[in-house]
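Hey, quick one: can you model this chain's 3D structure?
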Amino acid sequence: MGVHIKSYAKINLTLDITGVQGGYHTLESLACTIDVADSITLKKRKDGLVNVFMRGMGSETIPPELNNAKRAGDMFVRTFGTTGADITVYKNIPIGAGLGGSSADAAGVLRGMSKLYKKGTPEELSALAATLGSDVPYMLRGGFARISGRGETVIPVSSVLKLFFLIATPPQGVSTAECYRRYGERAAVPRATFEAERALKKGDIYTLGRTLFNALTPPAVSLNPQIETALNELCAFFPVGVSMTGSGSAAYALFDSPELCAWAKSRYKGSFPCFTAKSVPAYKD
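Sure thing. Here's the predicted structure for all 285 residues.
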């Protein structure tokens, strides 16, 4: 008997760079999970091996040593002294888009292993997650949240809002490391997260739309001009706001109703694959 987990993608509604610590940029970000998910199945093994099989989106070519799902499984076994697992990840989250697919897989494996072996408190899983990547602690929980530091601080945010997105995915990715390096050469920018969080809590989608912001957009566009094309194409539908998620390359438009979002999707004749998505609440397990 195995375990089946859905692990959702994320959108950064804001992404502010707040400084540098230990050679890494620190950030503040307002994020939400969306109803695009990778599906993960886990089955116990009698030995200590963790086998990860990737399916879809070209993920089959990811080397095991670079696979966050494999790293998460191995770390869980070492930490809790369990036997291993055969894990299959069915990819639906576009790769290299800033939607958190790799982090979602790592978080999903931690959640799945915890269910499979009935080990790991939320605090213990969060500590493991923090060693696997800046988005992984947030992806363990999902929902609306403010993320701070190097991603290790995750504060839930309550809101009545449901958000609807049209997401365009330029095929050329962006190197996250190079994007941050180029950001480091730029002047400081205003911070948007506080105002956006206040709007989200109030249920004010129009102020939220005006405060969407990503400090990494200029360096990401310098690395991949397709992102600017995608943002301009999405603006044509007069959404309440547009922005980029993560370090790219996905751009998104925020709408205040599913009908308007679907209308924009039906009329999008732009350069890139696109899809609709909506915000989803935090995991209950």
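One thing worth noting: Residues 164-280 form a domain with the Alpha-Beta Plaits fold (CATH 3.30.70.890).
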